[in-house]
């Protein structure tokens, strides 16, 4: 990874009424799945989410009563093609290293781990759900420990995770069993959230036009084939990459939509203003529609992002 110059993106956002407020966060994500029962079982038993609501065609899962993931049954939707843009992974953020160790124990008990990395700012586990949707479970290090570039941006890398060190923390303070407790903790902590969403896109410049110039995220640590963008100095709320050479818009099963939550109506109006300016300049083709609680942006790759207020 190399750090891009985020001065241009910051200037562009300023020209269009400023960037996103620091309180901006990712809300819910939604997946279109063929087998709802199997998907619910995975996100409940492996990721550790609780089922908050369920009917024949839809399930909502979350932590501490807060909804984080919506699963929508669509058995007739085609499989995602290898060329389609869409989801790289949804990333569930747990509040501690002990909670990450508990997640690792659930994965080892009932699933398979595909990867594990130390990103300097965070420690992460990677796996795929039953339908091939990427999943990250991670914990952040304290912000004061994040390494920084010369420009002050959080510096990230991909290094091997001390996976056994993480495993040994399971049960530390959360189930009363002590460090390395053999008791399997079956639920993620109440303050687990959806920390970021990582997309596969066909064009990074089009991604930046919509999400940086339009929505107002700031570009952080990035490389030639990847962009990380965030609000409030976070390492990233959204990632986008072209690693697999996706060439066609999102289609079929997989990511249905995700939410960006801003703190107030003024912030939402500023997003509208910036998107209008980007549309007028013709830098990217995207659609904007109004809803009762905010707006829906369908980006260049057909990915739907819902911008809402708290």
From TrEMBL:
Residues 25-140 form the VOC domain. InterPro entries: Glyas_Bleomycin-R_OHBP_Dase (IPR029068), Glyas_Fos-R_dOase_dom (IPR004360), VOC_core (IPR037523). Residues 1-12 have a biased composition (Polar residues). Residues 1-25 are annotated as: Disordered. SUPFAM superfamilies: Glyoxalase/Bleomycin resistance protein/Dihydroxybiphenyl dioxygenase. This is VOC family protein. It comes from Halorubrum ezzemoulense.
């Amino acid at each position: 990874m190399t750090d891009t110059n985020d001065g241009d993106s910051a200037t562009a956002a300023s020209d269009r009424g400023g960037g996103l407020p620091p309180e901006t966060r990712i809300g819910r994500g939604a997946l279109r799945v063929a087998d709802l029962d199997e998907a619910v079982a995975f996100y409940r038993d492996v990721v550790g989410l609780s089922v908050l609501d369920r009917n024949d065609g839809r399930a909502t899962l979350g932590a501490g009563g807060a909804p984080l993931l919506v699963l929508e049954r669509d058995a007739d939707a085609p499989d995602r093609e290898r060329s389609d843009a869409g989801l790289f992974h949804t990333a569930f953020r747990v509040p501690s290293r002990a909670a990450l160790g508990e997640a690792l124990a659930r994965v080892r008990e009932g699933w398979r781990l595909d990867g594990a990395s130390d990103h300097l700012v965070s420690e992460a586990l990677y796996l795929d759900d039953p339908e091939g949707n990427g999943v990250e479970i991670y914990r952040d290090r304290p912000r004061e420990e994040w390494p920084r570039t010369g420009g002050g941006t959080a510096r990230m890398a991909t290094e091997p995770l001390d996976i056994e060190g993480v495993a040994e923390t399971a049960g530390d303070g959360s189930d009363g069993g002590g460090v390395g407790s053999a008791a399997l903790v079956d639920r993620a902590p109440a303050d687990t959230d959806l920390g970021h969403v990582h997309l596969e896109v066909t064009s990074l410049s089009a991604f930046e036009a919509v999400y940086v110039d339009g929505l107002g995220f700031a570009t952080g640590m990035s490389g030639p084939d990847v962009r990380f963008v965030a609000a409030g100095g976070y390492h990233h709320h959204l990632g986008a990459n072209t690693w697999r050479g996706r060439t066609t818009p999102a289609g079929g099963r997989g990511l249905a939509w995700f939410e960006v939550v801003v703190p107030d109506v003024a912030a939402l109006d500023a997003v509208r203003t910036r998107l209008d300016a980007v549309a007028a300049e013709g830098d990217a083709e995207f659609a904007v529609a109004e809803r009762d609680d905010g707006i829906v942006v369908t980006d260049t790759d057909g990915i739907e992002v819902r911008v809402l207020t708290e």
